[in-house]
Amino acid sequence: MTKSDSQTAIISPFVLVPETVKLTGCPRSTILKYTKTGQFPKAVRLLGDRIAFVRADVEQWIDARLASNKEAV
Q1: CB-based contact 55:13 (threshold 8 Å)
Q2: Which residues of the chain have pLDDT under 50?
Q3: For residue 15, what are the β-bridge partners?
Q4: What is the pTM of this model?
Q5: Domain boundaries, the chain
Q6: Under 8 Å CB-to-CB from 42, ≥6 apart: which residues?
């Protein structure tokens, strides 16, 4: 067994706001505004004041945006 075989990356089902900003390219304020208006997936409250989003929901939102842009072109 090689070293890479024994080290499997664990991917969280959640993405925190900073990672969501990187994934979407949208500023934090826009993501939070879209969340409040229903234009972005609902946030999940974690420990304390931390919020996150379900990774699959964010990826689906990105895919939908890409698809709508392709249709517009």
Answers
A1: yes
A2: 1
A3: 53
A4: 0.79
A5: 13-72
A6: 35, 53, 57
pLDDT (tens digit per residue) in 54-69? 999 999 999 999 998 8
Q: Which CATH number fits domain 13-72: 3.40.50.1240, 1.10.1660.10, 3.60.15.10, 1.10.1740.10?
A: 1.10.1660.10
Q: From residue 5, how far is each of 1, 8, 9, 66 by CA, in Å?
A: 6, 7, 10, 34
Asked if residue 16 lies in contact with residue 55, where contact means CB atoms within 8 angstroms, the answer is no
Are 71 and 51 contacting, i.e. CB atoms less than 8 angstroms apart?
A: no
Phi first, then psi: what are they for 40, rounded to 5°? Answer: -140, 155
Count of C-beta atoms within a 10 Å radius of residue 50: 12
